[in-house]
Design goal:
Layout (H helix, E strand, L loop, with lengths): L11 H18 L16 E3 L3 E7 L5 E10 L6 E10 L3 E10 L10 E10 L8 E4 L3 E4 L9 E2 L14 H9 L8 E2 L3 E2 L3 E9 L15 E11 L2 E8 L5 H4 L7 H4 L10
């Protein structure tokens, strides 16, 4: 068939398809949030747990539990669906899990600060003397606490070894000191009310004992303690012989425990 010689006019549908292709192509090279009429990519909210739980309280019924949790914060909402739930119980422990949804995993969310919020949960029965474990990380107990607060437990647990002349209580005393990990403890002099022992921290390269100069170097300190309700309380430290260091701070420390102590020196 011969052509009529007139120009071919595209159909309306064909024109719309061409325009759509152009628009889609442009969108493919446009970054989210950069165009004049564009919108930012929606943030992804994910399930998360608190940065930390700093306090716990029980109401008068001994079942209504309030927890202070540290969570993300920023210029826009950073937390939703905050809740606490009892996940398990036993004769010794009650486990509680705190959770919420947050976009804080994406730095563009602006959730770079923190704040403290309170969340409540009702225990199935009074806590009593059981340990409250929150998020498998933080423990609280009502023992020794002043209601309504619960007492946070330390590294040695909720009921550390009592002060006394026992190895367990000496371990508790070392834990109360600002000393490096793997610090060794020397001979203890203890009468139940007062305690003194030397600690030694390895220095220099990590190598076998006696392998060469510097390998066996250590730095020693002598610590003096007084028994308190919370445990052994360090009252003085030093390296001098006898009672000089402790009597300068605590004259009541008994001579019988320190008079014969030799001076400490750094060993090589």
């Amino acid at each position: 068939m011969k052509s009529s010689g007139r120009p071919v006019i595209p159909s309306v549908a064909a024109l719309l398809c061409a325009v759509a292709v152009l628009l889609l192509g442009a969108c493919g090279t446009q970054k989210a949030g950069t165009g004049p009429n564009s919108t930012a990519t929606p943030l992804r909210w994910t399930l998360a747990g608190p940065i930390g739980v700093t306090a716990a309280r029980l109401a008068d019924d001994r079942r209504t539990l309030s927890l202070d949790a540290e969570v993300p914060d920023g210029p826009r909402p950073c937390v939703r669906d905050l809740r606490a739930a009892v996940t398990s119980t036993s004769e010794r422990t009650v486990w509680v899990q705190v959770s919420y949804n947050s976009p804080s995993g994406d730095r563009s969310s602006g959730c770079t600060r923190t704040k403290t919020v309170t969340v409540k949960v009702r225990l199935p029965e009074p806590l009593g003397h059981r340990v409250l474990n929150v998020d498998n990380f933080t423990d609280f107990t009502a023992d020794g606490a002043e209601a309504p607060d619960l007492r946070p437990c330390g590294e040695l647990g909720c009921h550390p070894a009592p002060t006394g002349c026992t190895p367990a209580s000496y371990d508790q005393a070392v834990a109360a000191l600002d000393v490096p990990n793997h610090t060794s403890r020397g001979t203890e002099h203890c009468d139940g009310k007062w305690l003194v022992f030397d600690v030694s921290s390895r220095m220099g390269p990590a190598c076998p004992e006696g392998a060469g100069p510097g390998c066996g170097a250590s730095l020693g300190d002598r610590w003096f303690f007084r028994a308190e309700k919370s445990g052994w309380d360090p009252v003085a430290r030093g390296t001098k012989a006898g009672c000089t260091d402790v009597h300068r701070v605590e004259p009541a420390f008994p001579d019988a425990l320190c008079a014969d102590l030799p001076a400490l020196r750094r060993s090589n």
